[in-house]
């Protein structure tokens, strides 16, 4: 993975970051930095994948697939895959 020093914010990405800021903010007056929002999103993604993997053998496939998202999708008894790249 290459390290980049800049993050290009097109209109859609800026809108998503603003929406995520509202989720991460501790109160309506809080304006968390983008780095905090990105850290929270990455942590959430990793924890979501771990949670799905941990219940894989306890829940039926239909229940597990209800929790699939555009980013994280679990195919029952096969794999976890990212649809982004």
Summarize the structure.
The protein has about 80 residues and is mainly α. About 50% of the residues lie in helices and about 10% in strands.
Question: Top keywords for this entry?
Answer:
48% helix; 85 residues; mainly alpha; extended; two-stranded antiparallel ribbon; 3 helices; 2 strands
- The global form is extended
Q: Count of DSSP E strands?
A: 2
**SS content category:** mainly alpha
For the termini, the CA-CA separation is 13 Å
Description:
By secondary structure, the chain is mainly alpha-helical. It has one domain. Helix content is 48%, strand content 9%. It has 3 helices and 2 strands. It has a two-stranded antiparallel sheet with strand order 1-2. α1 packs across α2. The longest helix is centred in the middle third of the chain and has 22 residues. The model has no long low-confidence stretch (mean pLDDT 82).
List the SSEs and their pairings:
Layout (H helix, E strand, L loop, with lengths): L10 H14 L9 H22 L5 H5 L6 E4 L3 E4 L3
Antiparallel strand pairs: 1-2
Helix pairs in contact: 1-2
